[in-house]
Amino acid sequence: MTADMPSDWSGGTALVVVDVQKGLDDTSYWGHRNNPDCETNIVALIAEWRDHGWPIVFVRHNSTNPLSPLRPGQAGNEFKDEITGEPDLLVTKSVHSAFEGDPSLHEWLQSRGVTGIDVCGIQTNFCCETTARQGSDLGYDVLFVLDATYTFDRPALDGIMMRARDLARVTATNLNEEFATVVNTRDLLA
Predict the structure, then answer these.
(1) CATH number of the domain located at residue range(s) 17-189 in this protein
(2) How many angstroms separate the CA atoms of 24 and 132, rounded?
(3) Less Cβ crowding at N or C end of the chain, within 10 Å?
């Protein structure tokens, strides 16, 4: 990708911004999160992509769980205030992978000759990881922008609480060099 790439550019890498929704700020529902810099890093990524006219995809999770703050029609379903402007594509989904949403992310990327995706958003070890894995299996070059994701503490099967930062480290370990290249925002933007 080069800085002089035209705004109607076809090919290269799309930024896939996964589930950055207001309902994920509900700590009474989700609990403690890691990475307080996530949203700042996502804003920087979106700005860079817009500056160059590169493709941006926003993904919205429409939860089917009647207790979830991410249900359609709830304030929590809306994107966080930091997620501004119009994407090139808006995908809605009710499952983990952005590739299983509507409209078809895969078909959209293919029709534009896009060969790679840079994944950021929420949650590191759920929808972001699943999107990265499926993207890899579909043949895309995947960059996983770890410091532009976050997740929440979660109890393990034995009842011991797994810290969000440890879950993120495990996701990075599982993905790197197998399904994706794990990067950070500063290095990606450099």
Answers:
(1) 3.40.50.850
(2) 20
(3) C
